[in-house]
Amino acid sequence: MRNNVKEEKKQMMLNENIMTLLPKMAVPTITAQLITTIYNLVDTYFVSTLGTNATAAVGVNSSLERMITVIGSLIGAGACSYISRLLGAKKEEHANRILSTSIFTGIGLGILFMIFGKLMLGDIVYWLGATEECAEYSIQYGTYVLYAAPFMIGSFILNMCLRSEGSATYSMIGIGFGGILNCFLDPLFIYKFGLGVAGASMATAISKCISFVILCWPYARKTTIVEISIRKFSLVWNDVKEVVAIGSSSFFRSVLTVVASIAINRVAGSYSTASLAALSVANRIMEFPFAFILGFGQGYQPVVGFNWGAKVWKRVKDSYTYGCAMAVGGSIVMGIIIFIFASPLIRIFNSQADMEVMELGMLCVRLQCFGLIMHALSSQVNMFFAGIGNAKLALVANFARQGYCFYPVLLIAPRIWGVNGVAATQALADLLSAVVIIPMFFYGLKVIRLAQEGKVETDVHKHSHRRKAEQHS
């Protein structure tokens, strides 16, 4: 029975029509991302009832949570790409070793992060952009999030590796259940138990831990293609290099997101705490379209990687072009909807009717709607190059949006338009990234054509040849 399930997953990745396979892979991933976004919004909503300073604290601590997931993204994204290519090349035992090494390494790094984070939390929240008014709330919120750090990293890795073998639905259940649970725990801990901001943090930590347990379940039952075992833990240099090289794309995307968030928080906070709260609310709202974009990319990346490893070039090209078209089309629809309803959306999280929060938040949201198309295309291009194992080009795509396009805008826009320039920074950076991303999209098509002509060799096969040569020598 278990072998039949494994074989069905392999056949699905290699033979099912791309037009039905990509939605099948992407919809559960998008759903999980949206549920996480909803629980972030619910978290922001309940905390916002405690005041503008508490709302600002949530924005500050979102950077702390991203710092934790940075570790998970480095290992998880690299392992996901490598495992999907190994499975496509029918190297299951090697894939088992990659997953086992990745998950135990990630949990160990999470424990270290928790320890050092707790020791330096007071300094960290100021470094993340907290003002004197919201620092106390930021410390309260950050305390319990740090306790969940090992489980958050573990969940991130398991979530991505389940998708690498086609188990996107179970991945959704694990992440989604934790998000839904958090929506119920928030009011219970904040109001019923009277714990305030600390209660919201406790609810988040408990939900993350339960998600981790759920994601472990299919591996414990051995219904997955890839298996986890402490006996298969092995730090082989070529494997570590491959995981880190590909994971560095997702890692730097997360790092850039954290650093960009810190930088813009600090600039906004220099104007007022209300400005910081406005950006916090706007960014929470924009997580909805971002969840769709990221979820779709994470859904189609394993399909690209699996078929790249199996050398089925037509399916690689079809998944790439269809994935980009769907992401861009979806971003246009969502951009129009959010632009129209920006005012009521901001009002939901502005319970104290602070006019500065309202006006600046609405400006930030509506401007970002214009940049969604390039955000969508850049994400899919990045996922494509990461999926086929091209770490360098994946990094180039990643650095565009919140790297070399973001910081010049952040430096210049506030000098010209003041706090409105801060609100416009991300949208302007997204539009500027078109100069890099559009040529990269067409280069991706060229890479597929070269691979089909035998002029490009997949990394997974190069590593296999290298290992065999080393054994013979």
Automatic annotation (TrEMBL):
Query: What GO molecular function annotation could you give as one example from this UniProt entry?
Result: antiporter activity
**Any idea which UniProt keywords this protein has?**
Antibiotic resistance, Antiport, Cell membrane, Ion transport, Membrane, Transmembrane, Transmembrane helix, Transport
- In which compartments does the protein localize? Cell membrane
Give me the segments passing through the membrane.
Answer: 21-42, 67-87, 99-121, 141-162, 169-191, 197-220, 320-345, 365-387, 423-445
User: What does the entry give for GO biological process?
Assistant: monoatomic ion transport; response to antibiotic
Concerning InterPro entries, the annotation shows:
MATE_fam, MATE_MdtK, MATE_MepA-like, MdtK-like
* GO CC, one annotated term: plasma membrane
One Pfam family name is: MatE
Indicate where this protein is primarily found.
membrane
How does the protein's chain sit in the membrane according to the entry?
Multi-pass membrane protein
According to its UniProt entry, what is the function of this protein?
Answer: Multidrug efflux pump.
- Similarity remark: Belongs to the multi antimicrobial extrusion (MATE) (TC 2.A.66.1) family. MepA subfamily.
PANTHER family recorded: FMN_FAD EXPORTER YEEO-RELATED (PTHR43298:SF2), MULTIDRUG RESISTANCE PROTEIN NORM-RELATED (PTHR43298)
Kindly provide the name given to this protein in its UniProt entry. Answer: Multidrug export protein MepA
Origin species, per record, is Marvinbryantia formatexigens DSM 14469
Source species taxonomy: Bacteria, Bacillati, Bacillota, Clostridia, Lachnospirales
